[in-house]
Design goal:
single chain, 109 residues, alpha+beta, Uridine Diphospho-n-acetylenolpyruvylglucosamine Reductase, domain 3, five-stranded antiparallel beta sheet, 5 strands, 19% strand, binds flavin-adenine dinucleotide
Length: 109
């Protein structure tokens, strides 16, 4: 995971739980729309929509994904931001469209 202060994006790699993400973000003046229980995974939570404690202010977590690296069923790897329909599809029904090992999220102050 790393935070890019120039773009205000938090880049999350594969296999993370929210506890690990929050631990790393705790020293930074930024957070993301993550899970309310630490051991829930970033992948399933976000690709399924994702209701965080900040949902009433900022909406669902899936809408804060600005890109995702996607491994397609055929083995190809694409960036969802290059395919508007794929990026849209990932935001709530993501499990159905391939594995997403890497996603930059919008950061919230
Ligand atoms: C105790 C608890 C508290 C919860 N709290 C909340 C909450 O506050 N808000 C909320 O919105 N939801 C909440 N949930 C629901 C949770 O978001 C879903 O269960 C979610 O699917 C968990 O994702 P996971 O990655 O941990 O699970 P997994 O079981 O690992 O994955 C769930 C699904 O996502 C797929 N998947 C996982 N990672 C990826 C990936 N990187 N790429 C593609 N597909 C992937 C899996 O194949 C599977 O189909 C909670 C669940 C539990 C058990």
């Amino acid at each position: 995971m790393h935070y890019d202060s120039t773009t205000n994006l938090v880049h999350l790699g594969p296999g993370q739980t929210w506890h690990k993400v929050y631990s790393k973000l705790s020293s930074l003046p930024v957070t993301v729309l993550g899970g309310r229980v630490g051991y829930v995974g970033v992948g399933g939570f976000t690709l399924g929509g994702g209701l965080s404690y900040l949902a009433n202010m900022y909406g669902v977590a899936a809408d804060s994904i600005v890109d995702a690296q996607v491994v397609l069923a055929g083995g190809g790897i694409v960036n969802a931001k290059d395919d508007e329909e794929l990026l849209f599809a990932l935001k709530g029904a993501g499990h159905a469209f391939g594995g997403t090992p890497f996603s930059p999220f919008a950061g919230f102050f």
